[in-house]
Design goal:
With 142 residues, the chain is α/β, with parallel strands linked by helices. It has six helices and four strands.
Length: 142
């Protein structure tokens, strides 16, 4: 990869949840990691954003979800639409998985990370599903 190409980070739901919820066990790690990689371009898929807002509304409050909705833009996280072909591959990957709690959105993130033309560096997530594609220094508590 050319040094003139700026690398990018793809954001997962659990990372954002930890970032926005001060009482989350991984809050400090999320804030520290975001600051450490702030110079990179940060992206999130629209379905991931929807899952995040729903999770935040359910586990924290609707008010927090509303505040996070507007804060995403201020943080410089860009939203990305996904074509049907990415969804088809994500569903195929989902069907191949055997573990309980497998997330279709995690599968979609993984497919998009691997097949998008965006020069992604890593996935911002605490989820072990992503393995070595996660940001260096991530605590693996989930």
């Amino acid at each position: 990869m050319s040094s003139s190409i700026k690398k990018a980070i793809l954001v997962d739901t659990d990372f954002l949840f930890a970032y926005f919820v001060g009482t989350d066990a991984l809050h400090r790690s999320a804030v520290k990691l975001f600051e450490s990689y702030r110079d990179l371009d940060w992206y999130m898929l629209v379905p991931t954003f929807a899952e995040f807002l729903t999770t935040l509304s359910n586990k924290s409050s609707k008010r927090d979800a509303n505040l996070a909705f507007f804060a995403i833009k201020e943080l410089g996280i860009s939203l990305l639409d996904t074509e049907r072909s990415f969804w088809d591959k994500a569903f195929d990957l989902f069907l191949e998985q055997n573990k309980k709690h497998t997330s279709v959105i995690d599968c979609l993130n993984l497919v998009y990370f691997r097949e998008s033309t965006i020069p992604f560096y890593k996935i911002a997530s605490f989820d072990k599903f992503y393995g070595d594609l996660r940001l260096p220094g991530v605590d693996s508590k989930r």
